[in-house]
Specification:
By secondary structure, the chain is mainly alpha-helical. The protein contains 14 helices and four strands. The protein has helices spanning 30-55, 65-68, 76-98, 105-110, 112-132, 141-154, 197-224, 245-255, 260-265, 274-280, 286-312, 314-322, 326-329, 332-356, and strands at 22-23, 26-27, 164-166, 173-175. The strands form two sheets. It has a two-stranded antiparallel sheet with strand order 1-2. Strands 3-4 form a two-stranded antiparallel ribbon. Helix 7 (197-224) packs across helix 8. The protein is globular, with a radius of gyration of 22 Å.
Length: 357
Amino acid sequence: MTQITNVTMHSPNAQAPLAPTSTGNLPLDDNWRKSIPAQVFLNHFFAMDYHIQHQHDLFDVPKFPIFQQFYGTVTDASYKTLEKLLLNSWSAEYALRITPVVNDEQYLQSSLHWTFPQAYYSALFSARAFLAAQGVNVSNEELIRKRIGNMVVRGYYPASIGYYALGPINSYRIQRLPMAKRFTVAAKTDLLLPSREGSVQAELSQFLKTTRDQRVKSLRNAIQTNPKTALRSPKTGEILQKFSVEQYKQLAKQIGYTTYFDMLSRLRISSTNREIERFVDSEIDVKLFHQSLVNIVSHVNAVHEAYIAKALGVDAYRQLVAKLPSYLQESFVRERMNTLIIPMLSADDDTSMKLAA
């Protein structure tokens, strides 16, 4: 099978298609109006990718004390689980990467039905493998989300994906995006891709907020639609239609942190869901969207793989890769191991030796 090479980075100065000439700031073209939700989504993920490329901080990870002290807990039983989870992650990433081989715009547009979930599930299985290397074998996505959220806050991840949101609705606090407050997301009628770090951080801040909004509203709905869990008025006994500030604070505690993982979970859109059709039928740059997803997934998975390789040891990690099916072994997996993972572990060894001296 043809070897799949890394997707090259797009120019951060690339721009989205401009809205047609409008009157009163409203686009005249109806197709463009219908494309707005999809373009906003593209802007969000483009910003994630841009921030990763701009930070260029993967090799900061070996310098983290938390990485240097990471030894993992891998037994014979958990090794088999780890191997299977990595295979699932890499298979999904492989499938995501080969989509552009078919150079057909209509096909690429339709491929969003499967490229969205491929990107999410590759990162999900990678996160599960990362947890499994620590002796934590969980499959419940809510538990995975909370554990990964805690690890983001504790500093396991580089700055490129280490930002997060916390707090109750209307009082969110955005952490580790210092430039976000000084910039605002471009007006919806422009919908230009962010092209500078300040506007990128503002876009990421907005993405965190809308993602947290969805989670808060979903949790509130789940609680209030169940007569057994619904909060009621102490006076009338009726199910509450409005929540107080204190009640929203309780929801925030239940949710935990909102991180890159929650943002990627927004890709988990069912192909039977009407929402996916908004993307398939839109006039957005699908190639750019796909490329951004590949770059994000590759970065997230590389971070997890570095920790896993450290827990296993270089030789054992090489052996794990050597047992993969040839279509994976001879693709991005081996290349990432040789150009990123092993050099990161070598950098960790150098740092440890300096500290010991």
